[in-house]
What does this fold into?
Amino acid sequence: MTGLTFTCRGATVRHGQGRVAIDGIDLEIGAGEQVALIGPSGAGKTTLLSVLGAALRPHEGQVIVGEADPWRLPGRQLRRLRASLFNAPQAPPLPPRQRVVTAVLAGRLGNWSLGRALWSLVRPGDPRQAFEALEVFSLGDRLWSRVDRLSGGERQRVSLARALVSPSRALLVDEPLSALDPALAHQTLSALIGHCRNRGDTLICSLHQVDMALEHFPRIVGLRDGRVAFDLPSAEVSNRSIRDLYFGHEAESDRVVVAVPRSAPVPNPMPAGRCVP
Ligand SMILES: Nc1ncnc2c1ncn2[C@@H]1O[C@H](COP(=O)(O)OP(=O)(O)O)[C@@H](O)[C@H]1O
Ligand SMILES: [Mg+2]
It folds into this structure.
């Protein structure tokens, strides 16, 4: 089973009061690709992940996941498609009183009958599988803990362990490192990418840590103001593209003004001998 492909054509989403969150996005992501979405807060990363993950319908344009536009599929096929996508939001909605083992194994629900899913709430089957997935993120010792006893970073990693046991063919992960220290962040990202590589799953991941995005992902999509500012192999992303992405094109002229030492003579913008009419 190979990873899913994603295509956006002119995808536009407006949130409340007509505010544009993503604005005519064109994007193609191949099966098994690993893509990092970066950009300033409010750039549209979470919204784009929701559109790609068939959780949010674009107001204009189209998204194609695999072969199909999810919003034109009949209910049963849409459910099947969603079962092959793993959406990991920044704050995973894990039931607070649930045991970690149950929360992780719930990642397999897409494969299970209703009866089996309900029974798993009473008696979690296959705790070893949950343990192994948790161990990948150094959380094996939390197998029997209650979810509400976990830190924010541990909850995020439980959500990723859940992705590991899921039947998904694509992972859409929103800022998985936001509550992790740098060492754990590197380990988590390596584990996630290794898992997707082994299975051939597509991975689309939003990140605030530009250095980690460049180090771990072969392809970087920079978003700014709801648009694709650049879409490049990571080796081709320059400091300048990063600066423009986060500070805008005007940043350079601002920087020049700030960089002029106070003692330096102020250059005369008018060539000598000319005057303003
Ligand atoms: N539920 C919402 N209601 C209103 N505006 C929203 C909502 N979600 C996001 N937005 C707005 O849409 C824009 C893009 O947001 P988002 O996709 O969350 O960006 P990012 O993930 O890059 O920070 C922002 O201007 C944000 O304020
Ligand atoms: Mg976001």
